[in-house]
Structures are given as C-alpha cells and as structure tokens.
Amino acid sequence: MKQATIIGATGLVGSHLLGQILEDERFSGVTVLTRRDTGISHPKITEHIVDFADPEGWATLVKGDVLYLCLGTTRAKAGGKKAQYAVDHTYQYNVAKAAAENGIPALVLVSSSGADAKSHFFYLRMKGALEEDLRQLDFSKRVFMRPGGLDGPREEKRTMERIGIAGLKTLNKIGLMRSMRPIHAETVARAMVNATFAAPDGTSIYELEEVFRLAQD
User: Fold this and answer.
1) Is 127 a known active-site residue?
2) 123, 157, 169, 173: which one is catalytic?
C-alpha cells in the first residue's frame, strides 16, 4: 500500500483527491500539508497546518510514496501576479524539492492545458515554468495533468469562469469545441489516482482527452 502526501487538499481538485484516497484500499495513509483545517477526521489522515513560505517548518514532514500537488489560487484572490506566482509555482516547487530530498519517488501535478514556459500568457507561462522546474528534481515518476476548465462547486465566486464554462458546455452540446470542454474536478482527481499506478517511470503528460480516458480505467 502507498502513503501519500497532498498539498492543496482544501481546493477544488485536492478535496476530491483527498476523499478518493481515504476510500482507496491501495493507500495506507495520507499526510496533508494545508494552510487551513480540512475539517476531516479519518484514521488514515495526518494533517499539518503550515506556512508554505517557511520551508524549514515543514520540509521534514513531506514523506511517503507519492506527492500530489494541487495548490493554486487566482490573481485576484492572491493580490497580484507576484503573490499568485508564489502560491502556484514557488510553494509547490519547494514542497516537491523537499519530497525529492526525502526520497519520495513519484509526483503528480495538476497543471493546465496550454502550459508553456514561453507562453505570452502569464498563467500558462507560470504553469509551464513549474513543469520545467519539476523535471529537474530527482523523481522516478513525474505525472503532469493538463485539464481544461475545471467544473465543480467552489467556495469563492469566479463569475467570469462560470460564464465561460457554461458557454463551453452549450457549444459542446452541439458538437463544437469538444477539445476544450470543461472537466469536473472529481474526474481529474480520479485520473490522478489512476496515474499513480498506471503511469510509467519518467515524465508523463496527460492532456484533456487523456485525462478523461485515464479517469475511466
């Protein structure tokens, strides 16, 4: 059985991932590093409230067989590009670095469709830079999930995002823009769990259609 570590377990994808791991008999336990209490009590969960800006306070806690990176925020919520970059890139990279140094062999990341370190778009450039930096760390297995728009209930309001997803769903129903169709966070989480066992060693990248297929395995 595997021991997992998750960051971002209170987020849209991470909360589904945590629930699935707690129910999965292939996992003996899960360590959650979080900025706020998950509110979940379960014999398989070990929870640590941490400050991701202070690696010395949590680096030794990152242990197990697989690390799941699900941490993320928006520019508006973070208060600007610099603050968003700290959460989406720097914090996640630092946790991954600690995981590699502590001997965790596998990493699974929620990235983004279109992630490219050379992109003209800040968000995609940030995600691409994170992928490139994670490639340099010593993991036997790296899995990068690149879903499109994430569907599912969020705590915070993202009005424009919801309008965009609703529009895509309408177009999808008439056969248009299927390659950009929204994907439910629960589906992404299921694909992440399945990739833990199905992905080969090395670096694997799963684009939207592959994420859908992997979730069904």
Assistant:
1) yes
2) 123
